[in-house]
Specification:
- It is a single chain.
- It contains seven helices and no strands.
- It starts with 8 loop residues before the first helix and ends with a helix.
- It has two domains: 62 residues, 434 Repressor (Amino-terminal Domain) (Orthogonal Bundle); 34 residues.
- By secondary structure, it is mostly helical.
- It is elongated and about 50 Å long.
- Pfam families: HTH_3 (PF01381).
- GO terms for molecular function: DNA binding; DNA-binding transcription factor activity.
- InterPro entries: Cro/C1-type_HTH, Lambda_DNA-bd_dom_sf, TransReg_Diox_bact_type.
Length: 116
């Protein structure tokens, strides 16, 4: 019988955000953590759940708190919000300005329709 993989996309997004915040490539994080870059990609992009040992290696290499990984209910962030933060962290200042203008225009439109 094949062993099924455990999936946790939230964990992958948290690790990806931390890596991108520190402007690390997969290879750089791999070198710092001792976890293969291929496996890091599987965790971040497919939600593969690493062993406790591998997760510890990544957390230590990124110098981040382990709390969000073990106490996710204590966090107010939802998955869509975390994904949005990751995407925004990859944007240039000009792209951020454009996205902000779009959001502001959307909210003005939404509020206008709400009051009608």
């Amino acid at each position: 019988m094949a062993k099924s993989k455990k999936i946790d996309k939230d964990m992958g997004f948290r690790l990806k955000k931390a890596r991108l915040d520190q402007k690390l490539t997969y290879d750089e994080l791999s070198e710092k953590s001792g976890v293969s870059s291929r496996y890091i990609k599987e965790i971040e992009n497919h939600g593969n759940v690493p062993s406790l040992e591998k997760l510890g290696q990544l957390i230590r290499a990124l110098h981040i708190s382990a709390d969000p990984f073990f106490y996710p209910a204590a966090l107010n962030d939802n998955l869509d919000y975390q994904r949005l933060l990751i995407y925004l962290s990859e944007c240039t200042p000009d792209q951020i300005t454009t996205i902000l203008a779009l959001v502001e225009a959307y909210l003005r439109t939404y509020k206008t329709h709400e009051t009608e």
